Amino acid sequence: MFLSYLKAFVVGGLICLVGQLLIDFTKLTPARILVAFVVAGVFLSGLGLYQPLIDFAGAGATVPLTGFGATIARGVRDAVREYGFMGILLGPLTASAAGITAAMIAGLIVSLVFKSGDKS
């Protein structure tokens, strides 16, 4: 069990390290880096390279945004197989619906519990 946690920590940490290096040494904005991570997850999943990383690291590979991209790619692949061309639109929505819903509910709860204010 400890080894699973260690693998998740190391792989997730390396993904975050790449993001930090991109922030520190490039002129890319954080938004562009986040989009690049999602696209990289889709691309690596499409090539069949990201699933072995998920099998190895578990949450260390699925929790970062690259894991979201892999989920989208997997959803498209499965939906195209089942629904044909319409799967291109249905796949990402059905594959990521639970995670997006959880994020929206968590955001709603936090907005109800805490009061927002100006940063200045």
Automatic annotation (TrEMBL):
Keywords: Membrane, Transmembrane, Transmembrane helix. InterPro entries: Spore_V_AE, SpoVA. Pfam families: SpoVAC_SpoVAEB (PF03862). The chain crosses the membrane at residues 6-26, 33-50, 56-76, 88-114. PANTHER family: STAGE V SPORULATION PROTEIN AC-RELATED, STAGE V SPORULATION PROTEIN AEB. This is Stage V sporulation protein AE. It comes from Yanshouia hominis. The gene is spoVAE.
